[in-house]
Structures are given as structure tokens and as C-alpha cells.
Amino acid sequence: MYKKKGFSEQTHFIGIPVSIELEELVEECREYMSSVYGCHSGYGTPPHITLIPPFALADGFDGRDLLEAAYSAADECKALNLLPLQVNVCGFGSFSERTLFANVQDSDGWQKLYSVFCKKISSAIPAAVKRGGRRFCPHLTIANRDIPSGAMDQALKHFAQLNLNESFTADSIAIYTRNSGGGWKEWQRIDC
Question: Of 8, 160, 179, whose CA–CA distance to 90 is shortest?
């Protein structure tokens, strides 16, 4: 199993796959950040909107437990008319100097979707979800952790020229697993 020194062994995360058009745009943005600023962190992950961040599947639990909980969460979200979800991606933003992202417009639907998934996953697999005190902020990561100091403002000015304003219907949830090279791959997709 893949393990980075200083990091816990993370095995799974749950996300929303994006449209082909947004996937292509994110890859182009990643290529720009790589060629201009030397960024590579996170590029082994398919473009997605993270719902439940990476976690280690604890001893005594396996992928079937996670899949069952994810199906249960998706079913509850469908019953509450939270899925499928209209997703609007407008412009770019950042979390300080650490993460550059395409901005997913927040809504009550996102917050409720997140809440249901947190409840169902943490109920089935204790310690998998670490909610903290921050509000869930849906976003589509372009670059993170290895952005050079002082580069964020220039990168945001560059990406602002794209006038990003895309929408798609999120009609599936994906569970991702770590691959042998340390990146992530889609393991299971739940259609909604």
C-alpha cells in the first residue's frame, strides 16, 4: 500500500465526477500550472469535486462497507431530491497560497448533500470523516501544495481571462482508491 512519509495512509475518498468539458479544461489548467510554475501535486487524481476527503479505511472495514454506505447516502439524497444536482462552475479562486481551484457555486443543496454523506459514511465507518469546524466548500482543484510563493495572484489573473462559466448535472457519485503509483483512480461509480 502507498504511504508518504509524514502522512497517514489514505485509501479512499468520495467525489463527484465532472463533465467531459470541465475535465478537459481542468487538465489544460493543470498543464499550464505545471509548465509555468512547476506544479505537479494532485495531478494523479482525475478531475472531480471532493465530497468526502481522503481517509484511511480502518482495520475491520473494507470496500464493501464503504460502498454500502455510499449507496445508502445516494439513495437518501435522491429521496430528498438532492441528486441529481445542477452544478455551476464560475471563475477561479484560492485557499490562501495553497490551493488554486475552479469555483463551484455553493448552495443549500451542496451543504445538504455533504451532510447526508458525512452522516452515512461516519455512521458505517467511524473515523472516516473528519468534519472539523469549517463549512463545506465545493471546488474543483487545479493545483495545490506545490504552488510557488507569490505565484497565486499571477495565476488567478491568467485564469480570469478564461471567463469560466460552465454548468453540468451531477448524476453520479464516485469512490476513488489510491493506485500503486500514489495517484487516485475511480473504483466505483453510483449513478443517481
Answer: 160
C-alpha cell at 84: 441529481
Mean pLDDT, rounded, for 102-125: 96
pTM for this one?
A: 0.91
Taking the CB of residue 76, how many other CB atoms lie within 10 A of it?
A: 16
Which alpha helices (DSSP H) does the chain contain, by range?
20-37, 63-79, 108-124, 152-160
Strand partners of residue 41 = none
CA 50 distance to own-chain centroid: 2
Pairwise CA distance, residues 159 & 164, whole Å: 8
Buried b (16+ CB within 10 A) or exposed e, 54-65: bbbbeeebeeeb
User: Please, what's the largest Cα pairwise distance for the chain?
Assistant: 49
C-alpha span between 182 and 38 (Å, rounded): 19
Q: Helix (H, G, I), strand (E, B), or coil: what is residue 72?
A: helix
C-alpha cell at 6: 509524514
- Residue 8: predicted pLDDT: 53
pLDDT over 90, % of the chain: 81
- E strand or H helix at 140: strand 139-144
Q: Is the pLDDT of residue 2 over 50?
A: no
Cα–Cα distance measured from residue 113 to residue 136, given in angstroms and rounded to the nearest whole number: 10
All cell numbers assigned to 78: 435522491
